[in-house]
Fold this protein.
Amino acid sequence: MNSLTTYLLIAAMLFTIGLFGVLRRRSLIAMLISIELMLNAASINFLAFTKFVSPDPATGQIYVLLIMGVAAAEVAIALAIIISLYRWLRTIDIERADRLRG
Amino acid sequence: MDLVQIARSNLEGFRYAGTEVALCVLIVALLLSGVILPFRKNRRLFLIISMLGLALAMTASLKQPGAGKGVRYFADLFLWDSFSVFFKLFFVAAAAFTILMAQMNREVEDYEFNECCLLVVSVTLGMVLLASSVDLLMIYLAFETMSLLSYLLVGIRFREARGGEAALKYVLYGAFTSGVMLFGFSLVYGLAGTTDIMEIGRILNSAHMAGQNRALFVLMVLFFLAGLLFKTASFPFHIWCPDVYEGAPTPVTAFLSVGPKAAGFAVFIRLFYTLFAREVGDQGFAAIEQVDWPAIVAVISAITMSLGNLSAIHQDNVKRLLAYSSIAHAGYLLMGIACLDKLGLEAVAFYLVVYLFMNLGAFAVVTAVNNGEGGEDIRFYRGLSARAPMACVAMAVFLFSLIGIPPFAGFVGKVFLFSAVILKKYYWLAIVAAINTVISLYYYVRLIKAMFIDQAEVSFEPRVSGVSYAVIGALALPTLVLGVYWQPLAAFIESIF
């Protein structure tokens, strides 16, 4: 069980779930959560590769810390935008955000 | 390495990081002056601060590295070479024009102007870092710095539903595609065990990688493409582009269509030409055997330009029209990347410079028209030449240049791109691009006809201020001059690859 393949499979599954969620869900919050799943899948990959492939300079671990920071910033910005839009639309359904088209 | 040595090498790095330092100082200056209440609405003050800071950044990036492979600095995360210097100059210039346009623009309210300058400069910092970073970790961070702040920049008019919606679409597509790209980064890291892209390039191109992992390589290239095609607004990640361009204030739209797009191309070249290709001989590159990515890029390029031009035909909103035109131009630029030789890369860099002037110019005129009681709809442009002749002549220059008609700069840029493609024997791509140029003639000329021949439908007074004329003139001049006297720029660009 404790092999690189296990971790990679879990990461690939998480990534697929996230990808499917972004494409399929219509709620803005669910889409954000799905995007977070994709980022976490990449983080798991980095950690697994650091542990099994190149353990000495712990680049992968540093990478994951930075990904966590970036993801937090991304969510903060996305939520701020969603809230400001909610004031207009009174909904978090992406289908209703359709003022701009042509 | 002990601490003293690390500190010394980091201090040494500041010699090459002049642009970044100047931009950081400018950001702090804008932040501090923005909180002082009496200055809150003083547009002129913030304009002066920004211009001084950007001038400083410009002079700091003028120092050219000599021949050779450049210098690494800041723990080898960055590379100071002519390629990064070229793009640094490019981004700082784009930021300066954007802030000038925002200053004369009334879509950006007085109390938002400070934030607007701050965000433009911060996005520029992200792009400057992106142009010089040669480490997957730093590329990701710089990419996100640029992206996250440009989401905010799009949503700066969040009190309007259109602005909020544009920002929302931008952030969702952006976060999604950068997540996909990050997964690609993690796979590359796993394969090579390091994040230095030069090192990774050597490992991926080495012989013992040749036989294996075909599917993995295809996946990696596709994941990388997701993030890069989003930033450059190319098929299949172009859908956000018209909506975001329409919803954002016009100067911001102008900035997005030039700055982050060029940054996308810069990192595209940096990543694909080091990771998935190796230099062969003096002029050429060879793609890795596992996946024929130049062919993929060529097909995407053909689809992107056709899609952009065909969708632009029935647009009545000028900003949407220019958005589709910018998608089409991303297609033209991708042709050069598919060429896989230095000629193609030089053509891309040259076209980007030309595109900076002509596209910002077109948006500067749109900004000026918006400032009166006018709007973005084409009916406001009908018969405009009677009331604002100079602006209309300038707009005609920019549009003819975007089509690629001699003697304007766009023509020279297109000649370089087409000749690179034809020399590479991509005849079908050249034919597609030629047909597309003809299609684009229709919608650009439709706008010119509206301005000069049609009768006015709406009577309004376009208020084009002196500053607006100065900016439009400063953008029109290079568009004209580069059309007849392009050798110095071409020679400079030849030296960067």
Summary: Chain B has a mean pLDDT of 89. Strands of chain B lie at 71-73, 78-80, 277-280, 284-287. The interface with chain A takes residues 137, 140-141, 144, 148, 151-152, 155, 158-159, 161-162, 164-169, 171-172, 175-176, 179-180, 182-183, 185-187, 189-190, 193-195, 242-243, 246-247, 315-317, 320 of chain B (CB under 8 Å). Residues 161-192 of chain B form the longest helix (32 residues).
